[in-house]
Amino acid sequence: EQLRNTVALDADIVGQNIFWADISQKAIFSASVDTRDKVGNHIKIVNNLHSPASIAVDWIYKNIYWTDIGLKTISVSNFDGSKSKILINSDLKEPTSIAVDPLSGFIYWSDWGEPARIEKAGMNGIDRQKLVTTDIQWPNGIALDLVKSRL
Description:
The chain is mainly β. It has strands spanning 6-12, 17-22, 27-32, 43-46, 52-58, 63-68, 73-78, 85-88, 95-101, 106-111, 117-122, 129-132.
């Protein structure tokens, strides 16, 4: 299996695993960071995606969140790909970036659609709120400063 177009990457530092989305494979993969004798060994954990754009690792509850521009969805699964669930599939045009704050219980994402915006919701997809809706174009990356509680 040839990995060609990795578009997103995140890691579970404690568990020593990395996760990435490959747009040409339409899937999310994982691999152990410690691969002394297993170079190139990776596991497909989520497939049947259309256009994965970003991923975010919840290192506390061991979940991975992702956006899919083609399906216009935000989804979640366990680290092994089980219990996969679409959290948000309405009023999304081009969900581009995602970040998770498991300490506060929120996910944050950007949407390139017209109008572009940044939103947040509970980690279960409930209580969706628009944070930025004006004076914004193509919000491409979301990062959280958990120490200073800043987006």
